[in-house]
Write a structure and sequence with these properties.
Oligomer: single chain
Strand content: under 5%
Largest sheet: none
Number of strands: 0
Radius of gyration: 25 Å
Shape: elongated
Helix content: over 70%
Length: about 180
Amino acid sequence: MSKLKNIDIEDYWNIINYNYSQIQFAEVKATAVISIYSLIFGLGYTLDILDEENVYSFNFSFGDAIHLILLGVSLFFVISSVRRCVMCILPRFNFSVKKSPLFFGDINKYKDFDTFFESLNEILNDENNYRKHLTQSVYATANIASIKFFNVNKGLRHLLKSIIFLSLFFISIYAV
């Protein structure tokens, strides 16, 4: 029991707040990746409009097969990257925690304010129970942050690969 006294309740809240900031950071990164794709496709569309010669018309020669392969691989990575970023912004979680009035996602599990008030009051007046619910909130927010970072990091790797293959595609069009 003496070990609990060494940990201040504020420490739990600091960890929860840190996890929330990491969640927000992952979502900002995912939004930035999607914005980069918007810029790339906007630039590609603009170049297509400005291209009077239509340099990349396909006749299905060997060179065009290479172009199509590079474009196909690029599109695969683009779709994979955008999918991962959307999964970061709108994730689905596979972990479960007990109902807690401290966790905002559980508010709809209480039928009315009085039930919520009683539950919250009971938790706040029992230090061990309060610590348990705070630990559960730390666990939930850490899981959310971990899942979001996993997805956005995969999205960033796919972004890099798609840019490499798109660059190879454009180099092959103008070089051949």
